[in-house]
Design a protein that fits this description.
The chain is built from ten helices and two strands, in the order αααββααααααα. The protein has 251 residues and is mainly alpha-helical. β1 and β2 form a beta hairpin.
């Protein structure tokens, strides 16, 4: 009987370097705390990464796949790029053979709770992962108690029961503190709340049908759609304000 051919050292090394989806998630969560397995599956379904499959159907990722995922997540987080644009960039790199990250990334020491020593907590991470008390919010944002109370009265800040504030509340409070340095009062922000509520109503009509489905991929698509809508809305708002100020600035 013929014995099966032994694998070469190169093949064995490549097989040993492959990672499960859980191992990839652990790698990426050092830099992207809000990434989930559903998110990785969604990016695969969108054609942004193509992990290998074992005969049993399990996903296996190489370091190039991890680098590719890191590029996608960074482009979304830092540049607010929609998936369509990211997909086009990756296709161009694939054609040129210069796809991002052709080398193994440096390892980072991680604490027992997943924290990276010397790195501040990323407050742009999933908002629900952050819980701040009233005193913490005041101390970290720069607003005072009276301003916080007024923001709550106007509905600009709404704590979660039983009185916790999330990462978005901290972002709002810090923005309010920055605007206050230019003379803005909490009452001036009522229009922001009204405009945001209108956008929420409009965007909810688009993502609610997906979010109501039991399929994790559909819910991941709903979250991704919401993220892209928010990013596009931010770009539109900033551009409209710049256009409106041109005459004042004489440009």
């Amino acid at each position: 009987m013929n014995e099966p051919a032994a694998s070469t050292p190169g093949e064995a090394a490549r097989a040993a370097a492959l990672m499960s989806i859980g191992e990839v998630l652990a790698q990426l969560r050092v830099e992207f705390p809000d990434v989930t397995i559903s998110k990785l599956r969604f990016l695969e379904a969108e054609g942004l990464v193509e992990p290998q499959r074992t005969p049993a159907g399990y996903r296996k990722y190489g370091w190039d796949d991890v680098a590719r995922l890191r590029f996608v997540l960074t482009a979304q987080r830092d540049q607010y790029l929609p998936l369509r644009v990211i997909r086009e960039q990756l296709a161009e790199w694939d054609e040129s053979g210069a796809a991002p990250g052709r080398q193994r990334p440096a390892l980072v020491a991680v604490g027992p709770g997943g924290e990276v020593p010397g790195r501040e907590v990323d407050e742009s991470a999933e908002s629900g992962q952050v819980r701040l008390g009233r005193a913490d919010l005041v101390a970290r944002s720069g607003i005072d108690e009276s301003t916080l109370a007024e923001l709550e009265r106007l509905g600009v800040l709404v704590p979660d029961p039983p009185g916790w504030y999330d990462a978005d509340a901290l972002i709002i409070a810090r923005a309010v503190a920055g605007l206050a340095a230019y003379g803005f009062q909490p009452r001036h922000l009522r229009g922001y709340r009204t405009a945001a509520d209108r956008e929420v109503g409009l965007f909810a009509q688009l993502v609610a049908p997906l979010a109501r489905q039991s399929d994790p991929a559909a819910r991941a698509r709903a979250a991704e759609t919401a993220r892209e809508l928010v990013a596009l809305s931010q770009q539109l708002h900033a551009a409209l304000v710049r256009v409106g100020l041109r005459s004042t600035l004489g440009r």
